[in-house]
Amino acid sequence: MYLIDRHTLQNSVYKFNQFHDEMRSDDVASSPADALFQAHGQRIWRNYGPLYESTKLLIEAESLKASETWNRTQESIHKHTHRLILAKDALDNKQLQASARISKFFGNDYTEEWRICSKKYELQVAHFNRELLDKYSICRNSLDSIMDHFEQDVVVEGSFLNTASQEIEKLSKTCQIWQLKQAGFNHAGVLLCTVSGIGRINQRITTSLDLCDAILLEMSMEDLDTPSCLFYYDIKMQFDEVFFQIESCALA
Prior knowledge:
- By secondary structure, the chain is an all-alpha fold.
- The protein has two domains: 1-46, no CATH class; 49-251, Substrate Binding Domain Of Dnak, Chain:A, Domain 2 (Up-down Bundle), CATH 1.20.1270.
- Helices cover 84% and strands 0% of the residues.
- It has seven helices and no strands.
- The chain has helices spanning 6-25, 32-45, 50-106, 112-118, 122-174, 187-222, 227-251.
- Helix 3 (50-106) runs antiparallel to helix 5 (122-174) and helix 3 (50-106) packs parallel to helix 7 (227-251).
């Protein structure tokens, strides 16, 4: 049994109170117990060990990779969406032009020269009118279908890809990796939670990317290259040639 004399005890209390006052002046702790805990804790927690640091770096690396994946995918989505919108706008503009010319052809506001020159093309222009309307409708529907497919699937999957990086970062708290800083906790459980969580998110990323790539490929190949769209533009070119011949004849 160890005995502490009165002088030693008083000296220890004095030093403890002095230490407490110094800690309070630095806003380190609000009580003697907190001060002692933080003073010792700083020495302990500065060295977290390779297990914690490696797990932390793994989460950071996987989060960064997910973020880079989303950035590339987002760029591709914007590129293909812009192309599809341009294709729809170009189709609409072509049809507006064709409709205006057909209205002029069958309208009453024309010269005698125009009437004479257009007379022999009436049946041909009427045929063009029916074909243009029919193929325009089919082509427009195909583009709308691609856009609908995009909005239903790519937007949903893109939303997940956009948040995948944050979901991986959340594993630090979800799996409580702080437990790896010291002994006495279930390190195996923490590591299993972290690795399985990253694997689950990465698997979902792969699935989302496959779906997005398939739809974006469809948008690349089919926006202006569907048979109905190609047929429409071919008929439009033929009609433009006939209309040009009529105009040239009327102005001669």
